[in-house]
Amino acid sequence: MSTETLDVASLRQRISEGEWQARVKLAQAYHLAARLRWTDHIYTHFSLRVPGDQPLFLINAFGQTFDEISAETLVKIDIDGNIIDDPTGLGINHAGFVIHSAIHRARPDAHAVLHTHTAAGIGVSAQRNGLLMISQHSTRFHHRLGYHDYEGIALDLDEQQRIVADLGDLNALILRNHGLLTCGGSIEEAFYNLYYLERACQAQLAAQSGGADLIILPDEVSEKAAQAFDNSIRNHKYQLHWDAYIRQLNRNAL
């Protein structure tokens, strides 16, 4: 990979309006994740495809915390990991490239890919039975969630084919003994999916901590709820969820 350090002040003059808007939204997603405590210091990554014909995407510079990231400091790379724009000069996390480029290459519909190492996500990822249908939040993923076995830190390109195969055409993946991953046709949709998956994991650990027998929802009930969530996605209800979060972000910035 080659790195070209750019003048941050000149970046906006070099890029399209579509890319600038993508940068703004991705930076907002990072800031929201920081506020929600979905971070693992500098070690996880969100990515978003750059609008246009070329398979380029934006990802965080390796070394910045989520609350430090701005539209200007995001790194633009191609599908092979070549750095196109890196205003920070920090480069990227190679594991982030391995995971995100695999999905962006195989799934042109997955414009946004979000990956976290939250305590709740890791906790459920370490459970043999994975996500249990014990909450309304978990039903969002009834038969709509993949699992990828842990192979060590994701540094080998060979692992990409297995990540892609385990995700398939789904928009949510539990990386066993590792964390969570969601994607979507927009940053808004991917964030909505991550919100529900994270909340489902939090609810599961909370329910298990009480030690009582858990009520596992019947398949037909879980599927009925999942279809209602599917309908919300088709009707872009995730936009309401995102817009409300951005209003909170903007109010707190005043």
Structural class by sheet pairing and helices: alpha+beta
Radius of gyration: 18 Å
Output the number of helix runs.
Answer: 9
**Percent range for β-strand residues:** 5-15%
| CA(first)-CA(last) distance | 39 Å
The major β-sheet equals: 8 strands, mixed
User: Segments where pLDDT lies below 50 for 5+ residues?
Assistant: 1-6
**Helix amount, in percent?**
40-55%
Strand order of the largest sheet: 4-3-2-1-5-8-7-6
Mean pLDDT: 92
Global outline:
globular
SSE order: HHEEEEHEHHEHEEHHH
**Count of strand segments:** 8
Describe the overall structure.
With 254 residues, the chain is of the alpha+beta class. 43% of the residues lie in helices and 13% in strands. The chain has nine helices and eight strands. An eight-stranded mixed beta sheet has the order 4-3-2-1-5-8-7-6, with helices on both faces. β6, α6 and β7 form a beta-alpha-beta unit. α3 crosses α6 and α7 crosses α9. The longest helix is centred in the C-terminal third of the chain and has 23 residues.
Properties at a glance:
alpha+beta, disordered N terminus, 254 residues, single chain, 43% helix
